[in-house]
Amino acid sequence: MNGILPLLRRLVPASLFARLTLILLAGLAAAQLLTTTLTIDERNDVTMGSMIDSVETDLRTAVALLDRLPPGERAAWPVAATASSWRRPKPGRRSARRIHADCWTP
Length: 106
Prior knowledge:
Blueprint: H1 4-11, H2 16-68, H3 77-81, H4 96-104
């Protein structure tokens, strides 16, 4: 305890103006940190919700298409479903949209 008190006296500014400025800057830094954290968290939630909505729409479409296909054609359809819109194409290959369009051409 004896070593901490002299250290605090050296770190704390001597003048009242410097102390108030330090308190003000610490409060502003804390507010900025809290605001940034909340904004990033909110953007993350919105992005995740948008992604989940997209996947949900794609899955609903796939189920609706499978329901309308004749039973004999359903076995070949999962190969076409691998070219879904949420998969990224590998470099040097056709884009996912092009693969998706090729799967549905008669």
